[in-house]
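Lecture notes, unit on binding sites. The following record was shown on slide 14. It pairs a sequence with coenzyme a persulfide.
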Amino acid sequence: MPLPITDPALPFFADHHRELAPAAAAWATVHLAQQPQIEDVDASCRALARQLGAAGWLQWCVPPANEEGKTPPLDARAICLLRETFAWHSSLADFVFAMQGLGAGAISLFGDAAQRARYLLGVASGELLAAFALSEPGAGSDAAALACRATRLADGSWQLDGEKTWVSNGGIADFYIVFARTEEEEEEEEAPERSSAGISAFIVDADSPGLAVAERILTLSPHPLARLEFSACQVPASQLLGSPGEGFRIAMATLDMFRISVAAAALGLARRAAHEALRHVQERRMFGQRLADMQITQAKLADMATAIDAAALLTYRAAWQRDQGGTKMQTTRTAAMAKLFATEEAQRVIDAAVQLFGGRGITQGEVVEALYRDIRALRIYEGASEVQKLVIARETLQAFKDSGNLP
Ligand code: COS
């Protein structure tokens, strides 16, 4: 039977992806359900993390070290196939998977041996919940404007002061990847207020003294989200991720990787909406015919199907390119294109599905009603659509300058 997600027979994929996709689909069919209303989101997320860990899926976000102790690179196509599958079945399961990936991704990509040993096994099993804390009330799209400060103390440890907001998994995470300014005080006097230099990344345990969950944030599609306050928060020297000053690059490189997977999640949500709509239009009768027989419906279905296919091709092109070890310019640009297009088009596809359902489409308890709420955040988080356009334009101009051609 064909899978409900992107066909793994496409030339972007390798043999192991062709085995992974049906295995994930079979598992998800049995274990996950799109739940329009979730009673206790925190408890559901914890349970889903353990479930995804026990089944081995989280290992794809946290590749185990090989015999030489080296961690293999993240497999972008596998992560995308899994997110597309999980999003189709349960947007909360996709969220949990993605957060383990984004939080642990920074450690997998930039952590030292001790940091990997301390955190990654727990993330892979779902026992430890991860989070990524970059945005601040005054620094969302403009991440380089962040103001959270890390000061090095005499004993080499760090003290964090400031706040972070819209932190997914905030309030339930066991650790946070936190980005803060670490320039020395005297440099800071002259430093510009916005600079990507002098930002460093830290792994901050949730129980660190001086870290408080100041507020839980309620959203359109409920998931754990919080504002955090750091007040003389004590962080040992061993928790610095990478080198001092490397934080912005760590944030951007981690986002490059996971932005592709946001596109895959959007694709899964769009495919689910199209699936529901296709079923519905064959059953629903009006004006003496099935909705599917009306040309006005067919035009909608054609647009939905074309948008989904185009989004799939951009998404897996970006993932394939990354797995091939494409240059930063290539991977940054194609990841941004995939996220922009797949999330914007998924919004349109889901809206069209709601429209085809008519009154039922906006009724609580309907799958398309939940999808309509679920998709909205994806056009905003991990780089809003406007940020993706900035990135695409910048990389395209640069490539044209370098080579004289449109890349
Ligand atoms: N990979 C590796 N390094 C990167 C990078 C990437 N994708 N993008 C930028 N960098 C590096 C640059 O090479 C540069 O280093 P040097 O100063 O050594 O040359 C440095 O980071 C600064 O880059 P840049 O000048 O591009 O920074 P900008 O502030 O102009 O970046 C955007 C602007 C909008 C692209 C950036 O702020 C961004 O992505 N914002 C969105 C943030 C976000 O996604 N927030 C959501 C948080 S998670 S839910």
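Take-home: The chain has three domains: 15-129, 132-244, 249-400.
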